Amino acid sequence: MTESATASLSAGGTAEASSEAMIAAEGLTKYYGEFIAAENISFSVPGGQVVAFLGPNGAGKSTTMKMLTGFLAPTRGHASIGGYDVFTQRLEAASVLGYLPENGPLYSEMTPKAMMQYCGRLRGMSGGDLKARIDYVVECCSLGTVWEKPVGKLSKGFRQRVGMAQAILHDPQVLILDEPTSGLDPNQTHQARELILTLAKTKTILLSTHILAEVQAMCSRVILINQGRLILDGPVSELASEVSQMEDRFRELTG
Predict the structure, then answer these.
(1) What pLDDT digit, counting tens, does each position of 121-147 carry?
(2) Residue ranges of the domains in the chain?
(3) Phi, psi values for residue 195, rounded to 5°
């Protein structure tokens, strides 16, 4: 890990936090018939924090993230991003949000180059501003070798990097990342972690992952849900101080 990343970790892996809630969930609940996907999920993330969003498969993490980003309407409850209600102020919330969904949909016939140009124009970017941001994401997501290959022909790891590139293209204040290192090899995983640590200096990040080493390396706080309900919200140290102990504590809490 670089010296700059280590320095970032010593500060909890985050920018200087502000008191304003950049991500807020108020009683988010989602039912599918009688099945409870999420129930009464409430938390807020102030500016500058990097927060791990944990839970076993099927716990309701992706459902909650989709409600937070406005991609899924809740059965009840409210969510806001950057102070904007994601349902009544959808465009304003989207303007300050970058979202990487798990296995996010990409246009398989497009190249990464065409997709970044398309996504940029959708967000109202053009000219030199768009070119500068595209140049930035090409470099930081290491897409140069596949820049003009169809996305459908790329490996899972490269597709994940394309997804990350579209999430940060418009330089959002808030990032919600669902399994950002999924499918990456160890070198790519290291690069992705370094990128997230760099972004954490200026952004608020909610990070879903199954890799507890990433939680210890990048996050200052943990939100843990199980069976659709929030069961822990506190500093990473409340889970454990060592990765092996974190795994034991995770199993204990989620049963």
Answers:
(1) 999 999 999 999 999 999 999 999 999
(2) 3-96+173-254, 107-171
(3) -65, -45
